[in-house]
Design goal:
heterodimer, A: mainly alpha, 4 helices, elongated, B: five-stranded mixed sheet, 7 helices
Amino acid sequence: MTYLNEKINWNILFLCWLIASISAMGSLFFSSVMEFAPCVLCWYQRIFLFPLVLILAIGLFPFDKKVVKYAFPLAIVGWLTAAYHNLLYAGIIPESIKPCSKGISCTEEYINLLGFLSIPMLSLLSFSTIITLLIILYKRTSK
Amino acid sequence: MKTHITFAITVLVLILAFMIGSSYYKGKQAEKIDFLAQENAELFVRNHSQTLGSDDAKVYLIEFMDPACETCAAFSSFVKQIIATNPGKIKLVLRYAPFHEGADYFVKILEAAKKQGKYWETLDVMYNTQPYWASHHNPQPQKIWQFLPKAGVDVERIRKDMNDPAIEKMIDQDLADAKMLNVRKTPGFFVNGKPLQTFGSKQLLQLVESELTANYPNQ
């Protein structure tokens, strides 16, 4: 039973790492291959996303439940930035108070999949999933 | 042990997917631009575009440039050297992509100098003095004026000619073409409609040489 539990916990953390890695690669694909210049807010989200790839991977070998403690703050700040970015993108926060009026616009539309999946939305989804998985993992391991 | 293998395989799959994805995307992009080149050669060469080299040249080297771009300055002598070593075979076409803030000011000066037949001289002066006026933290476009006499131009006439609204239209046209061709960075090179896939002087030389062999097979 404990063995099965350990296996599930490892898999949850692995999935969490996989989502972070796919997101990091996706963001690199947008900037390096498709040559979309990242705006200021995108950079902040990258700053909190990229370390997750390493920190979560370190937590996998050997499995360390403390990884939640280290990864969670990064994921939360990344999520907050992504949430703010989405509000800006959707026009709910007016242009005048956005911090990136100079340089690359944070509201320029680069991609639009299925009518709602913009780059900031992808970021928000991935941070949300990572946070959810970390919370599940925390609940399971702190019992 | 099993977990290590799962992890290693996943990492490999991700990296492979990234590499296949990029080469697929770049291939698609090149195809699209190739199609544009056949359907609409105007996108690459407009009537107003400044050119260098023989009109009979079969290899067209198109450069989307910005007078305030450091890499454009660094590449300028390399590009001229490529043309000089293949006399009559390559034609350089300069297009404007003034992405730096305020860079269209320098495009206007260049176009005004063109009316005096001093285009290349003025561009050389601009590139050579770029560090003085184009600092990223403190751009001082006015500083260019003290260097302009070196190009042998009538500075007062430039001040007047640079306000020609036709120049502004020209810049808009070039920027629109740059957008169509997906040029997001300067310098953006195309050789006979083929984009430079990865940036670098070696890669540029290779692309030019492959077009030279394709168009001048007997030499």
